[in-house]
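[job 4471] stage=fold_predict status=RUNNING
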Amino acid sequence: MGENTAGVMLSATVFQVSGKYHLFLPIADDHDAELQRLDQVGVKPEIEVKDDDALDHVLALPR
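[job 4471] inference complete, writing C-alpha coordinates
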Protein backbone atom coordinates (compact mmCIF):
# COMPACT_ATOMS: atom_id res chain seq x y z
CA MET A 1 0.00 0.00 0.00
CA GLY A 2 1.36 3.41 -0.93
CA GLU A 3 3.13 4.84 -3.96
CA ASN A 4 5.70 3.40 -6.37
CA THR A 5 9.13 2.97 -4.83
CA ALA A 6 11.89 5.25 -6.11
CA GLY A 7 13.52 2.62 -8.32
CA VAL A 8 17.04 3.16 -7.03
CA MET A 9 18.15 -0.47 -7.08
CA LEU A 10 21.50 -0.63 -8.87
CA SER A 11 24.04 -1.52 -6.16
CA ALA A 12 27.61 -0.37 -6.61
CA THR A 13 30.90 -0.41 -4.75
CA VAL A 14 33.86 1.94 -4.86
CA PHE A 15 37.21 0.25 -5.47
CA GLN A 16 40.51 2.07 -4.98
CA VAL A 17 42.49 1.65 -8.20
CA SER A 18 45.74 3.38 -7.26
CA GLY A 19 46.64 6.42 -5.24
CA LYS A 20 43.91 9.03 -5.65
CA TYR A 21 41.90 7.10 -8.28
CA HIS A 22 38.74 5.17 -7.50
CA LEU A 23 36.43 3.04 -9.63
CA PHE A 24 32.67 3.16 -8.99
CA LEU A 25 31.47 -0.23 -10.27
CA PRO A 26 27.93 -1.72 -10.30
CA ILE A 27 27.90 -5.08 -8.51
CA ALA A 28 24.20 -6.06 -8.50
CA ASP A 29 21.14 -5.37 -10.65
CA ASP A 30 17.83 -6.35 -9.02
CA HIS A 31 14.89 -7.84 -10.96
CA ASP A 32 11.32 -8.81 -10.11
CA ALA A 33 9.77 -12.28 -10.52
CA GLU A 34 9.26 -11.64 -14.26
CA LEU A 35 12.96 -10.69 -14.61
CA GLN A 36 12.12 -7.02 -15.23
CA ARG A 37 14.70 -4.53 -13.92
CA LEU A 38 13.67 -2.55 -10.84
CA ASP A 39 16.30 0.17 -11.28
CA GLN A 40 14.73 3.43 -12.47
CA VAL A 41 11.30 1.73 -12.51
CA GLY A 42 10.49 0.89 -8.89
CA VAL A 43 7.86 -1.42 -7.47
CA LYS A 44 4.15 -0.70 -7.85
CA PRO A 45 2.10 -1.46 -4.71
CA GLU A 46 -1.00 -3.65 -4.87
CA ILE A 47 -3.05 -0.82 -3.37
CA GLU A 48 -2.07 2.62 -4.69
CA VAL A 49 -2.66 5.56 -2.36
CA LYS A 50 -0.69 8.71 -1.62
CA ASP A 51 1.98 8.03 1.00
CA ASP A 52 0.44 10.64 3.30
CA ASP A 53 -2.89 8.75 3.22
CA ALA A 54 -1.53 5.19 3.60
CA LEU A 55 -1.86 4.98 7.40
CA ASP A 56 -5.50 6.11 7.28
CA HIS A 57 -6.25 3.44 4.65
CA VAL A 58 -4.57 0.72 6.72
CA LEU A 59 -6.45 1.70 9.87
CA ALA A 60 -9.75 1.60 7.93
CA LEU A 61 -9.22 -2.02 6.81
CA PRO A 62 -11.44 -4.65 8.46
CA ARG A 63 -9.74 -6.64 11.19
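[job 4471] summary: Residues 17 and 63 are 56 Å apart (CA to CA).
[job 4471] exit 0
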